[in-house]
Write a structure and sequence with these properties.
Oligomer: single chain
Strand content: 15-25%
Number of strands: 9
Distance between the termini: 31 Å
Helix content: 25-40%
Radius of gyration: 20 Å
Number of helices: 5
Order of helices and strands: EHEHEEHEHHEEEE
């Protein structure tokens, strides 16, 4: 933060606490040092009497107490503070037209990989799209996570829009057994938003990409796109 000197000459700080070998907790979350990084950053701000914006890569912490402390610390020091990933602004396999105020009837996302690490990407990719609906974003009222028989029971009972689900599944590459119902690693997040909108993100071991299927009111053909994860330079 001080670039080896006795002041803070930088315009902002990017904190990426997701590299290195760190232990897992009892539910399989890797305990990356996001809070420790924030502690060191803010201590340096206080020492030198200057605050600059901080961007935290991905979520604030694996446990609520860490995330709450980081939020409170940013408020205490009046730090311009943001968190997230490249998903909202990254390349798509297909560009879709979804302006603000879109009449979204249903949306389903597909995710893959580690439930927390890659799962964060899938959740953020999903959220970027659904917050473009009429009325924009007013908050999330409730979240449920299902797996096993309860997952497919929810799907069969209509908690997940099947048209949007099929569109999202078609948009991602597949590995191994491509039958969703035979996927032992499947997990489902169900969201109830404050404005009454509902949505879902399904994690699959047989998928190798992040996508979304969107059904607009009055349109039979769903919109679908996926995150383009190619690593070569873009121009």
């Amino acid at each position: 933060v001080t670039v080896g000197g006795n002041s803070i000459p930088v315009d902002a700080v990017l904190s990426i606490g997701e590299h290195g070998d760190y232990p897992l907790n009892d539910i399989g979350q890797q305990l990356y040092p996001r809070r420790r990084f924030m502690e060191q950053i803010t201590t340096t701000f206080e020492k030198h009497g200057r605050v600059v914006p901080v961007f935290n890569d991905k979520h604030l912490g694996p446990v609520w107490s860490d995330a709450k402390w980081m939020y409170d610390r940013a408020r205490e020091l009046k730090i311009p503070y943001m968190a997230g990933s490249s998903m909202p602004v990254g390349f798509r396999t297909t560009e879709i037209k979804l302006p603000m105020g879109s009449e979204i009837a249903a949306a389903v996302g597909i995710g893959y990989g580690g439930l927390e690490i890659y799962g964060f990407h899938a959740l953020e990719f999903f959220q970027y799209h659904v917050e473009r609906r009429t009325g924009a974003e007013r908050g999330v009222k409730a979240v449920r996570f299902l797996e096993g028989p309860a997952l497919w029971k929810a799907v069969d009972e209509g908690a997940v829009d099947k048209i949007a689900l099929e569109a999202a599944f078609a948009a991602v590459p597949k590995v191994g057994q491509p039958d969703m119902r035979q996927d032992k690693d499947a997990g489902l997040f169900l969201f109830e938003y404050a404005d009454g909108f509902t949505g879902a993100v399904l994690y699959l071991g047989c998928a190798s990409g992040t996508s979304i299927g969107i059904r607009l009111k009055g349109q039979k053909q769903p919109l679908t796109t996926a995150f383009d994860e190619r690593t070569e330079p873009r121009y």
